[in-house]
Amino acid sequence: MTKYLVSIHRANDYDPAVAEDKAMSRDIDALNDEMMIAGVRIFVGGLQPITNAKSLRRQPDGAVIITDGLYLKTPEHVGGFWVLETADFTEALAWGRKAAVACRASVEVRPFH
């Protein structure tokens, strides 16, 4: 069995208070229940808004600079994720498809080493 990161990607201006309705919450809860029943879910976590993020960058002299915001300057960010343990990549992708539908978002599935 291999572990996989299934990450949910959101636009930087994503506002869960506006975008997430009862149906979406119900779909995500149902997916979490399904993952638990299947025994594949190791960990799940939603992340706070990007306004609460801090980035740490090591400088050539060894100093570490802390700045507000995301590390990568991109139009999207990781809004939450699951760590799953599945038999193979095909099964992990099937869970990723379900996550994309439930979360109404783009999803990345990536195996751990």
From TrEMBL:
This is Uncharacterized protein. SUPFAM superfamilies: Dimeric alpha+beta barrel (SSF54909). It comes from Rariglobus hedericola. It comes from the Bacteria.
